[in-house]
Write a structure and sequence with these properties.
By secondary structure, this protein is mainly β. The protein contains 2 helices and 9 strands.
Length: about 200
């Protein structure tokens, strides 16, 4: 195998943290120039996963005889994925084929993205969006290298007034400072400082 391809596979193995994924497949999309390639990374040959016809699979199962090798699907059997034909790759350039999806497959998926994440709503982080809250900082972002210091300011310490509990926003009841042995307990729709009671554990 070409050294460049071998190193590429090792890098993907590291970036995907595949050995901590409970043997689940991980899909990686890489763009080189105008070519975008989808790689399926996993412990077993992908069978019932929506992939381009020209899928590329990286075998990263340490117990496999082909551990650390790349395979290109050359023939796809739409009725029985166990009859798909895969060819072992030896050169880096061959791991980036032109890929096409079966039009029938595209009807099974939604191409619209989930909601972007915000400071209060779970969602996906995007590399280039107008919503600042959803922007993911990547290499080269000026905030990673700008040694800014906070402006001089002062303000009274303000205690927290709400907490997120699952999907709920729950108010913290106005109280004096907690005593030793107290914990924050949710009762009657609000959080209060108190010792844990048996009824709190039900």
């Amino acid at each position: 195998m070409e050294l460049k391809l071998e190193q590429f596979i090792k890098n993907v193995e590291l970036v995907t943290n595949i050995h901590q994924q409970n043997e689940a497949h991980v899909l990686v999309r890489l763009k080189s120039g105008t070519v975008s390639t989808v790689f399926c990374v996993g412990y077993s040959c992908p069978r019932y996963i929506l992939l381009p016809n020209e899928a590329v699979w990286l075998d990263l199962n340490p117990e496999s005889d082909t551990y650390g090798y790349a395979f290109l699907r050359t023939t796809r059997d739409r009725s029985d994925p166990y009859k798909d034909v895969w060819k072992q790759l030896y050169f880096y350039a061959d791991a980036f084929p032109t890929q096409n999806y079966d039009p029938a497959d595209l009807t099974k998926v939604s191409i619209s993205l989930p909601n972007p994440a915000t400071v209060t709503v779970a969602g996906i982080g995007l590399l280039s969006v107008d919503q600042i809250d959803a922007k993911v900082i990547v290499e080269g972002d000026p905030t990673l290298s700008d040694p800014r210091y906070p402006n001089q300011h002062s303000h009274d310490e303000t205690p927290a007034t709400i907490l997120y509990s699952g999907t709920d926003i729950v108010q913290i009841a106005d109280q004096t400072s907690p005593e030793t042995g107290f914990t924050l307990v949710r009762r009657n729709g609000v959080f209060v400082w108190d010792r844990i009671k048996e009824s709190d554990l039900v």
